[in-house]
Design goal:
Elements (H helix, E strand, L loop, with lengths): L1 H8 L7 H5 L4 H21 L1 H8 L6 H21 L4 H5 L1 H18 L1 E3 L2 E7 L2 E3 L1 H22 L4 H22 L1 H17 L4 H24 L2 H7 L3 H12 L14 H11 L25 H34 L3 H25 L16 H40 L6
Antiparallel strand pairs: 1-2, 2-3
Helix pairs in contact: 3-5, 3-15, 5-17, 7-8, 8-9, 8-10, 8-16, 8-17, 9-10, 10-16, 14-15, 15-16, 16-17
């Protein structure tokens, strides 16, 4: 009787709504909230140019309120996703993929052109970026591929081959409008497949032709004239200019401010303005002049306003994201959930690495900083991904708690001289 009372008393209090909502890994919750706080402070400061534009309509702080609403909605989405059972992510993967694919296919016909590229589409009054949502497709498809290949090892080549072909078709579509996004997706699929232990022979068969095509593409950008490239694709000239800029040895050009390199140069100025100690939001001197300061170059604003503290803290958060996803994956016995954790832990820190490299001037491309940059689509997808990790960690905690209770019951039975079986 005493054993039954001990077991009943050890059950979690389901009436405690706060504990029920935040049952997942408290470490992830802390990091997630820090991300949102950094986003609220840094984006609000970097939106100064947008605030000035909206002030002409009589409500200057509308962009800040909009971003804060995005953050609150993202937090709610994370809470909701964290409460879903992990099996739901596999069961609804087909439905989610169908919705995202429909948006991608509708993009050429109904998409909006911004900055010379068609990347956004209006859905139910909201402007969404399908490429952001496609990131979860790559993760979900990879997790299902890994699970099926382990259940039927003799068909692993088929499963991974289908994953690569289907992913490659959509990655190619994204490359036509945004080369950097397509390359990011391709690199992710390659690394993710290696982590998921794809057959090496199959990797070689697919990888070598892709590397050859990639080398031929780079060679074309180097040697083909801009006039000819423009006839092939209108954005090819932009890709060529960025490649030439990377390979350029003339350091003196870095000090010449021009329209073509304004973002990169103003980002470098923001980094140069940073100081050792933080000066807080609103102290940036280039936020009004730096294009996309609140999105692609938000890290430059963070470093300028928060000095070495911001310089180190932001990368550390993504390093922890990467590490903790791997830690949870090592604990996970379910193959599908393990693959989801590995995919989420790779995709978004990898994107952050690209963004930070751009701000540092290593190369020039456009990628948002996950969970920090301004933008509803990016915040939604990153928050869903974080919620998926929290959902899996919640189940892990419940299993660990149940195992400890079973061990306690078995120990009590042995103390009473009862057969534990």
């Amino acid at each position: 009787m005493q054993v039954d009372q001990t077991y009943t008393a050890s059950q979690p209090n389901r009436a405690d709504w706060f504990k029920r909502i935040f049952e997942g890994s408290w470490q992830l919750w802390v990091v997630y909230v820090i991300f949102l706080i950094i986003s609220a402070l840094s984006v609000s400061s970097a939106l100064s140019s947008e605030i000035y534009k909206s002030s002409t309509s009589g409500f200057g702080f509308a962009p800040i309120f909009k971003h804060l609403i995005f953050l609150l909605a993202a937090f709610g989405l994370t809470v909701l996703t964290s409460q879903l059972p992990p099996a739901w992510f596999r069961n609804k993967a087909l439905l989610y993929s169908a919705i995202v694919i429909a948006m991608i296919l509708a993009l050429p016909f109904f998409g909006k052109e911004i900055n010379g590229a068609v990347r956004w589409i209006d859905v139910l009054g909201f402007s969404l970026q399908p490429s952001e949502f496609f990131k979860l497709c790559l993760i979900l498809w990879g997790a299902i591929t890994y699970t099926l290949s382990n259940e039927s090892p003799e068909r692993a080549n088929l499963y991974f081959g289908v994953y690569w072909v289907v992913s490659g078709l959509f990655i190619g579509l994204f490359m036509l409008e945004n080369l950097s996004t397509g390359v990011l997706f391709g690199v992710f699929v390659a690394i993710y497949s290696i982590i998921l232990k794809a057959p090496w022979r199959l990797l070689f068969k697919f990888g070598v032709p892709i590397l050859v095509l990639g080398a031929a593409f780079v060679a074309a950008l180097i040697w083909v004239s801009p006039q000819q490239l423009g006839k092939i694709h209108e954005r090819a000239i932009t890709w060529q200019n960025r490649l030439h800029k990377i390979a350029k040895d003339d350091d003196a050009s870095k000090f010449i401010l021009n329209d073509a390199d304004r973002q990169s140069q103003m980002g470098q100025i923001a980094l140069a303005n940073s100081r050792l100690l933080p000066h807080g939001p609103g102290s940036s001197k280039v936020r009004d002049s730096l294009p996309m300061a609140y999105s692609d170059f938000i890290y430059a604003i963070i470093v300028e306003e928060y000095g070495i503290f911001g310089l180190i803290l932001v990368p550390l958060l993504y390093i922890f994201w990467f590490y903790w996803a791997g830690h949870l994956a090592m604990r996970e016995k379910n193959r599908h959930r393990r693959a989801l954790l590995l995919g989420i832990g790779l995709m978004f820190p990898l994107q952050a690495l690209v963004n930070i490299a751009v701000v540092a001037g290593i190369f020039m491309t456009g990628q948002t900083l996950p969970l920090i940059s301004y933008g509803g689509s990016s915040l939604m997808v990153c928050s869903i991904a974080m919620g998926m990790m929290l959902s899996i960690s919640r189940v892990q905690n419940e299993v660990a708690s149940l195992e400890s209770e079973v061990a306690l019951l078995e120990g009590g039975a042995r103390d009473l001289g009862l057969d534990s079986k």
